[in-house]
DNA sequence: CTTGTTATCGGAGCGTCGCTCCGCAACAAT
DNA sequence: ATTGTTGCGGAGCGACGCTCCGATAACAAG
């Protein structure tokens, strides 16, 4: 029998048998579309409807909302993570690299409605979204931070985890308030992190 | 008749007639207790149960949740607002005053579970909580900021509204994450606001 | 004391949402 | 054809925000 399949157009078939499980990518595309339209807190029903599947299917592929969100934005988070070392290599100064990276991160968060707000570890450790962002970006942020701090000759005043979460928090609600300038606040915050004055 | 009440200890009576509407203060006390126990996002049913009244009563006195929250924390917000001028007068430097006031504000936000997170103007302008905090505290923060900026001889880099909201955002989630140090982040942010370097 | 008026009270009820769970259908193996 | 396996869909449950109306109680007039 082998795999002499002739009629199956896509047949991802990675598991042992069964139906060609409905393309996860289709779900991700639908979710992305809904996230753009209604924010990352959009009802699961709406995502299911957009994808033309039942809610069960969504939950089967992504048992928790954070997992879905992570999957949707994985590429962009990876791009952001990869941009770190690149900026550090290409920029004139480590501080410039840090500020450029931070601007990238801020732009990413601000353009995704509600993403920054969903970044919290509310569910007592079981928050995959928070964990993913932290695991992936803290090291990157840490490298940039370390380099920048060293280049300006100040002792490190805070760890990368706090800096990253602080930036994330500063981006919350930026889309709903024209007067609120998250980018400016974050850059000022970075100034503080790199400033000589401790108190 | 006057107010020769002899049996009514508190009798607020502000409306014309009817029953001595159930003391709002009792509701506020109950709400405060629940907020401490379950955060400011506690279900209205829970607050009503704690107060021993029906939900209708809660909604009659405080049609929206922000109004209830404002009422519960009004005293502390006022105290915070009043502390501004006082600190400015008593502190050695305007910067010290600003930093002390900010520490006060941060402590206030961090100790009230979820208050910082509820500070957003999500409901398109109709958010009384956001409006109250902004109206009451932005001027205070502005004065301190102005004095501090002037004393260190830097041009103002951002307005008080953004500073206040930034601080509020930095306090989000502080209670759920032992590694997250909101106070430190905010003070670094203030350093940035007062720093010479603009870019 | 009785009756009428009026404001307040309490919670049933409706719509929404997150999440679970079970019957069903489609395919593979026999 | 029959049986086994696996993915699929959505009904259903509990929680919640918020509304709305019948019940209730205080007071004034008679």
From TrEMBL, chains A, B:
One of its GO terms (molecular function) is DNA-binding transcription factor activity. Residues 1-22 are annotated as: Disordered. Pfam families: TetR_C_43, TetR_N. Signal peptide: none annotated. Residues 21-80 form the HTH tetR-type domain. PROSITE patterns: HTH_TETR_2. Residues 43-62 bind DNA. InterPro entries: Homeodomain-like_sf, HTH-type_TetR-like_transc_reg, HTH_TetR, TetR_SbtR-like_C. The keyword Cytoplasm does not apply. Keywords: DNA-binding, Transcription, Transcription regulation. The keyword Ribosomal protein does not apply. PANTHER family: HTH-TYPE TRANSCRIPTIONAL REGULATOR BETI (PTHR30055:SF234), HTH-TYPE TRANSCRIPTIONAL REGULATOR RUTR (PTHR30055). This is TetR/AcrR family transcriptional regulator. It comes from Labedella populi.
């Amino acid at each position: 029998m082998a795999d002499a399949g002739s009629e199956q157009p896509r047949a991802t078939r990675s598991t042992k048998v069964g139906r060609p499980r409905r393309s996860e990518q289709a779900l991700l595309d639908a979710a992305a579309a809904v996230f753009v339209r209604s924010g990352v807190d959009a009802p699961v029903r709406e995502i299911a409807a957009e994808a033309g599947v039942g809610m069960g299917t969504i939950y089967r592929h992504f048992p928790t909302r954070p997992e879905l969100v992570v999957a949707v934005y994985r590429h962009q988070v990876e791009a952001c993570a990869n941009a770190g070392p690149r900026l550090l290599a290409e920029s004139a100064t480590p501080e410039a690299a840090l500020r450029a990276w931070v601007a990238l991160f801020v732009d990413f968060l601000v353009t995704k409605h509600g993403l920054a707000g969903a970044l919290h570890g509310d569910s007592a450790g079981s928050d995959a979204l928070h964990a993913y962002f932290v695991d992936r970006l803290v090291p990157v942020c840490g490298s940039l931070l370390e380099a920048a701090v060293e280049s300006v000759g100040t002792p490190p005043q805070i760890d990368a985890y706090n800096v990253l979460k602080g930036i994330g928090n500063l981006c919350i609600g930026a889309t709903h308030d024209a007067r609120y300038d998250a980018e400016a606040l974050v850059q000022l915050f970075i100034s503080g992190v790199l400033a000589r004055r401790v108190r």
